[in-house]
Write a structure and sequence with these properties.
- Helix content is 53%, strand content 13%.
- The protein is of the alpha/beta class.
- The chain folds into two domains: 144 residues, no CATH class; 199 residues, 3-Layer(aba) Sandwich (Rossmann fold).
- It is globular and about 65 Å long.
- The protein starts with a helix and ends with a strand.
């Protein structure tokens, strides 16, 4: 009878944490075992590892991410302090392995001050695994297959489609004016110009706080016939929003940002929207990308690699637009194929 009553008592925080952790150790052991097997195979085969083993490692890494989210995410019943401690355990176990992978190491070390800098995004686009030692590139290959890396690649085509849509609405050969805020490597702009029959139809302003990002794009575009259709603006958007810097852009048909606002608070995003509203022509559009809370690798990013973002739902995006100068919810919300990056659109009244 006593034993039966004891079974019905709720677990203490410590007991619950240990229960979660004990479940994780099985998957962590599997992960380490496959890494070890990959290292042995690389050692015996002049650095080569079978596709079957790489696929197994990729699958286990994905499963670990999902398990971590279940334990540390919004649906977890653990208190925040318990989540933090459990996250530290995951970091100690996983970080030594993940830092062998070039992409994960860059996320963690943040050489340009934040994880999603222009070179990190460019490496996602290039999708060429690199790393340290025999298994570094193999781990990087698995890492580059994780949903957030795939989402970054997917959103490039989504923006190409949106710019094409903006171009199609112009009549009588008028120039379409587009601005990209926190433009990064701007691969979508290269894609769109390569598809245009007449580059004079489009004029693009690229704004970024990182001078190296602007230099990277400028150098890459130097040999292109449409290079003069680009304007590069070093811009600190915090200063811009606070009225301390003027970007000097004409009324725009489209202003967008792929990966900016999930680094900022709601109050900043509302002021940014106010600024964008003032720079759009009547009928012009804004499109802002943001990570959605359903990101299955959020716990890995938050607790292991220290890439903490502000995740927003559709309703939260609607509220931001309603509180801004647009004074209404989003006119459309799109998703890349993984559905973990949403893109909220709003049209300025004509």
């Amino acid at each position: 009878m006593v034993a039966e009553l004891t079974k019905e008592l709720p677990l203490t925080e410590v007991q619950q944490t240990e229960k979660f952790w004990n479940r994780s150790t099985i998957k962590l052991a599997d992960f380490k075992a496959v890494v070890e097997a990959a290292d042995r195979e690389a050692l015996q085969n002049d650095g080569q590892v079978s596709g079957e083993l790489i696929a197994a490692l990729s699958a286990i890494l994905n499963e670990l991410c999902v398990e971590m989210n279940a334990m540390l995410g919004d649906q977890s019943t653990l208190p925040e302090e318990a989540k933090r401690k459990l996250g530290q355990r995951y970091r100690r176990e996983l970080l030594p392995y993940l830092l062998l992978a070039n992409t994960a190491e860059r996320w963690y070390s943040k050489p340009r001050g934040y994880a999603g800098d222009f070179m990190t995004i460019e490496e996602f686009y290039q999708d060429q695994p690199k790393g340290t030692g025999r298994v570094g590139a193999i781990l990087d290959q698995c890492f580059l297959k994780l949903p957030p890396a795939d989402a970054v690649r997917n959103r490039r085509q989504l923006l190409v489609e949106e710019i094409q849509s903006t171009l199609s609405q112009k009549k009588n050969g008028d120039v379409t004016r587009v601005s990209s805020l926190a433009s990064g490597p701007a691969r979508e702009i290269f894609d769109i110009f390569q598809q245009l029959d007449d580059p004079k139809k489009l004029y693009v302003t690229l704004v970024d706080i990182d001078l190296q990002a602007l230099a990277f794009v400028s150098d890459k575009a130097r040999r292109q016939s449409w290079r003069k259709r680009l304007r590069f603006v070093p811009g600190n958007l915090i200063d811009v929003v606070n009225g301390k810097q003027e970007l000097g852009i004409e009324p725009q048909d489209l202003i967008y940002s792929i990966g900016l606002i999930d680094y900022f608070s709601d109050s900043f995003v509302i002021r940014l929207l106010d600024y964008i509203h003032g720079k759009l022509r009547p009928g012009g559009r804004v499109i802002l990308g943001n990570f959605h809370p359903r990101n299955p690798t959020r716990a890995l990013m938050d607790h292991v690699l220290s890439w903490e973002l502000t995740y927003r739902t559709e309703e939260e995006m609607n509220q931001l637009f309603e509180q801004s100068a647009f004074r209404r919810p989003c006119t459309n919300i799109r998703y890349e194929a993984q559905r973990i990056n949403l893109f909220a659109e709003c049209i300025k009244d004509a």
